[in-house]
């Protein structure tokens, strides 16, 4: 009988998983052992003089200007807006010294990249892989090799079926993550998301959030920054749970849906900042409108170049469009020409402002039609007047002081007219 020759390409290949492993010991201490035995701790209590004479290491930014070392951020939004895309892009930018929506990390003093642990409680590990591969191209200036070495994943759907996954609201789970922090060591832990990584008895009870608050504070003491991904409540205007949860965070960011959303299936949102704890005059955090879009290959890249996914974002003049929206909603304006006149621009700019507002998701075409109709009704009733164009000629007027006037003679501080 002839020997059967098997083509290697036709054999079914076993999937290869190169992940490292860590031992997690799950425990639920009985009530009799939940209280710690008495133990002495040395607590620092400097006087004001001692405090003022002390020097502390400058905390550098993992992502300037809203996330420093030992700080925590909560990111929340409605389902499907792109919370995980945002959080994973942040992790890649921090680990790979890249840029995300115009925000960049400081260099570490030792010249190495920041070390990040991404804990995922929901997605299949293959989906995490696909997103990470896609978003590597979407982070400008990233060092892929640094990101691959500095970013580590702990995903629930990557474990064996009988494995218990650590919970961030149970002592065993927080102890496991703290051990990984100390062994790492780590600079940033991303927890995606609260609903799948922990449990609380009553979301409306402040006491239910004691465990997660203590965990986040422990991470700060260990020198670690944290991003907690969370869901919005039913109104979409705030995060789920008690307001006590907000106390420990230096920054709280909401991803808000755009009023005019595209049919594209990826992330698109406006980043609004509910809370930014002061950290110096340079810490001015801007709002951003962002979309994850597919960019066609450039002509110079040649035939066969593939399309890539990029973050398209706008961060300027958002406050201006918000103010213009309020004027339009109130029926103060009746057409594009009045928008241009209000802004001191030529007539075509009124059309440009409307189109840009649509692109930014501030309003829709239907909104503009309704608001102009309201404006015309109010104008007919004499309830409004056409806007007056800004007049800046006063800046060029020459001031002539009265003859013999001595500005130093009057010490009252008043300007005579």
What order do the strands of the largest sheet run in, or round the barrel if closed?
5-4-6-7-3-8-9-10-11
Uncertain runs are 1-8
Structural class designation: alpha/beta
Rg over C-alpha atoms, rounded to the nearest angstrom: 28 Å
How many beta-strand segments? 11
Order of helices and strands: HHEEEHEHHEHEHHEEEEEHHHH
Our count of helices gives: 12
Can you identify the CATH class of the largest domain? Alpha Beta
Q: CATH H level of the largest domain: which superfamily?
A: P-loop containing nucleotide triphosphate hydrolases
Shape: globular
What do we call the CATH topology of the largest domain? Rossmann fold
Strand content: 15-25%
Alpha carbon gap, first and last residue: 119 Å
Average pLDDT reading: 84
> What kind of sheet is the major sheet?
9 strands, mixed
* CATH architecture type of the largest domain: 3-Layer(aba) Sandwich
The amount of helix comes to 25-40%
In the residues, how many domains can be counted?
A: 2
């Amino acid at each position: 009988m002839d020997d059967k020759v098997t083509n290697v390409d036709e054999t079914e290949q076993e999937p290869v998983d190169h992940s490292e492993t860590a031992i997690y010991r799950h425990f639920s201490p009985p009530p009799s052992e939940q209280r710690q035995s008495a133990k002495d701790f040395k607590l620092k209590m400097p006087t004001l003089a001692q405090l003022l004479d002390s020097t502390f290491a400058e905390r550098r930014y993992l992502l300037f200007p809203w996330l420093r070392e030992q700080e925590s951020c909560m990111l929340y939004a409605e389902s499907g807006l792109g919370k995980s895309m945002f959080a994973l892009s942040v992790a890649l930018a921090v680990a790979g010294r890249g840029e995300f929506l115009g925000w960049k990390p400081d260099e570490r003093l030792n010249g190495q990249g920041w070390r990040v642990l991404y804990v995922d409680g929901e997605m299949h590990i293959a989906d995490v892989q696909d997103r990470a591969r896609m978003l590597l191209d979407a982070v400008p200036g990233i060092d892929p090799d640094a990101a691959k070495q500095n970013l580590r994943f702990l995903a629930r759907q990557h474990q064996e079926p009988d494995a218990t996954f650590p919970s961030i609201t149970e002592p065993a789970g927080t102890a496991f993550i703290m051990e990984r922090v100390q062994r790492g060591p780590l600079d940033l832990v991303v927890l995606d998301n609260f609903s799948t990584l922990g449990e609380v008895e009553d979301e409306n009870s402040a006491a239910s959030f004691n465990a997660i608050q203590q965990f986040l504070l422990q991470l700060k003491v260990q020198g670690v920054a944290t991003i907690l991904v969370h869901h919005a409540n039913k109104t979409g205007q705030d995060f789920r749970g008690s307001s006590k949860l907000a106390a420990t965070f230096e920054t709280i960011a909401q991803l808000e849906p755009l009023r005019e959303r595209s049919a594209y299936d990826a992330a698109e949102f406006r980043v609004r900042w509910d809370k930014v704890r002061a950290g110096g005059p340079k810490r001015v955090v801007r709002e951003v409108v962002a979309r994850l879009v597919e960019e066609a290959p450039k002509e110079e890249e040649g035939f066969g170049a593939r399309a890539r996914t990029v973050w398209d974002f706008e961060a300027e003049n958002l406050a201006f469009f918000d103010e213009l929206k309020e004027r339009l909603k109130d029926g103060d304006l009746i057409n594009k020409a009045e928008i241009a006149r209000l802004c001191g621009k030529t007539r075509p700019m009124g059309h440009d402002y409307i189109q840009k507002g649509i692109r930014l998701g501030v309003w829709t075409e239907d909104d503009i039609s309704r608001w102009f109709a309201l404006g015309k009704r109010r104008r007919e009733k004499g309830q409004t007047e056409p806007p007056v164009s800004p007049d800046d000629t006063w800046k060029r007027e020459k001031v002539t002081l009265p003859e013999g006037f001595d500005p130093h003679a009057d010490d009252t501080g008043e300007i005579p007219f």
